[in-house]
């Protein structure tokens, strides 16, 4: 199995929004990423529209539609407004995250037991629209939690890899966290769930993650990929990350 790469374009939008100008073009760079072989685009529209604007969604949907088999992944906290955006934009996958509006970025997974009823209802609504649903999950090695996720009815989990990415200067800690992520992923797979991953993944730390979780379905990468693109260009950076995913280039 080859791990798919979905390019998160939030950081590009954040840079654009510093000025009342149309560049850098979120749609244009999204198109470059897909032309270089990325399998999808990811956005996280927030209520304050500080990066992705709601008006970006239909334009990005059109970009994705120009590439066979590419997917549009929309992530966020499931307010009624957010669910409407996902429906209207024709999301292929929705990744539900437990963010507070004041958070700068996603930094923890769901408490699945506490929010089970809410998530059951939300997942059912999205799947009724034909949308694949992934739930943001802590990769803490708690295998029993995956029983709850299975009961909720999600198709996938997305492992929160922030602690792994943040331990680049401590190889022993990185190895410990990687094994916890792996145990969580193994437990999810044993229950028929597919596994995605995202947050602070780099071309350097991604190969070890893919090696430990060889059935990893998809990674969603934005901040580091965008930073690397400042040096290497978007097309070359996508190729570097595809290689890190184990894809043939």
Explain how this protein is built.
Keywords: Cytoplasm, Pyridoxine biosynthesis, Transferase. Belongs to the PNP synthase family. The record marks 158 as: Transition state stabilizer. This protein is an alpha/beta fold and 249 residues long. It has one domain (4-244): Aldolase class I (TIM Barrel), CATH 3.20.20.70. 44% of the residues lie in helices and 16% in strands. It has 11 helices and 8 strands. It has helices at 10-16, 26-35, 56-65, 80-89, 116-128, 145-152, 162-165, 171-190, 206-212, 223-232, 234-244, and strands at residues 4-8, 40-43, 71-76, 93-96, 132-138, 156-160, 194-198, 218-221. Strands 1-2-3-4-5-6-7-8 form an 8-stranded parallel barrel, surrounded by 6 helices. Helix 3 links the parallel strand 2 and strand 3 (71-76). Helix 5 packs across helix 6. The model has no long low-confidence stretch (mean pLDDT 96).
What's the CATH architecture name?
Answer: Alpha-Beta Barrel
> Can you count the helices?
11
Instruction: Indicate the mean pLDDT.
Output: 96
Please give the alpha-carbon distance between the first and last residues: 15 Å
String of helices and strands = EHHEHEHEHEHEHHEHEHH
Q: Radius of gyration in whole Å, from Cα?
A: 17 Å
Largest sheet at a glance? 8 strands, parallel, barrel
CATH topology category name: TIM Barrel
Kindly state the percentage of residues in helix: 40-55%
Instruction: Count up the domains.
Output: 1
The percent range for strand residues is 15-25%
Widest beta sheet: strand line-up: 1-2-3-4-5-6-7-8
Q: Output the CATH class name.
A: Alpha Beta
DSSP E strands, number: 8
Low-pLDDT regions: none
Pathway: Cofactor biosynthesis; pyridoxine 5'-phosphate biosynthesis; pyridoxine 5'-phosphate from D-erythrose 4-phosphate: step 5/5
Binding site for 3-amino-2-oxopropyl phosphate: 8, 19, 200, 222-223
Pfam families: PdxJ (PF03740)
GO molecular function, one term: pyridoxine 5'-phosphate synthase activity
């Amino acid at each position: 199995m080859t791990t798919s790469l979905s390019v998160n374009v939030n950081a590009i939008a954040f840079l654009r929004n510093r000025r009342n100008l149309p560049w850098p073009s979120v749609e244009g760079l999204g198109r470059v990423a897909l032309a270089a072989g990325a399998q999808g685009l990811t956005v996280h529209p927030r209520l304050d529209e500080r990066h992705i604007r709601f008006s970006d969604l239909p334009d990005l949907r059109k970009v994705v539609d120009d590439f066979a088999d590419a997917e549009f992944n929309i992530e966020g906290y499931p307010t009624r407004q957010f669910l409407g955006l996902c429906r209207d934009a024709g999301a292929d996958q929705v990744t539900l995250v437990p963010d507070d509006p004041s958070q700068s970025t996603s930094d923890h997974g769901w408490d699945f037991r506490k929010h089970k009823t809410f998530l059951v209802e939300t997942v059912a609504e999205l799947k009724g629209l034909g949308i694949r649903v992934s739930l943001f999950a802590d990769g803490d090695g708690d295998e029993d939690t995956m029983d709850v996720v299975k009961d909720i009815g999600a198709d996938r989990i997305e492992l929160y890899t922030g602690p792994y990415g943040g331990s680049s200067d401590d190889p022993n800690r990185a190895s410990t966290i990687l094994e916890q992520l792996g145990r969580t992923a193994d437990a999810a797979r044993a229950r028929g769930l597919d596994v995605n991953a995202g947050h602070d993944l780099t071309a350097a730390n991604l190969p070890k993650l893919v090696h430990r979780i060889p059935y990893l379905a998809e990674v969603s990468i934005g901040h580091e990929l965008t930073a690397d693109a400042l040096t290497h260009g978007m097309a070359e950076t996508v190729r570097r990350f595809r290689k890190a995913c184990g894809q043939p280039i």
